[in-house]
Design a protein that fits this description.
single chain; mainly alpha; 0% strand; elongated
Length: 95
């Protein structure tokens, strides 16, 4: 029987905190039955995922989702002047 080993953590993150912040983190970690490092890592990771979710996850109510799908499935339509605009110089070339 083989025993799965946890992935080895090689990167290290160090932060400086005020004594009151450290006490608060230690108390919260103890209340969660975690080490302070595990508590901070878990909650910082969760906060990062939530912050980045807006940039990676697109959630709409069903009616708005259907409206979006209908718009995306419509045949393409030329936009007057767009080809001329894109053929002209870019903003960088105007400088």
């Amino acid at each position: 029987m083989t025993v799965a080993r946890a992935a080895r953590k090689e990167d290290r993150l160090e932060i400086r905190v005020q004594p009151a912040q450290r006490r608060l983190l230690d108390q919260a970690a103890a209340a969660s039955n975690l080490t302070t490092s595990a508590f901070v890592l878990s909650h910082a990771t969760e906060a990062a995922q939530q912050l980045l979710a807006d940039r990676t996850l697109f959630v709409l109510p069903e009616d708005r989702w259907q409206a979006l799908v209908e718009l995306l499935e419509r045949p393409e339509q030329p936009v007057e002047g767009l080809a001329r605009l894109l053929a002209g110089p870019s903003v960088e070339e105007l400088e």
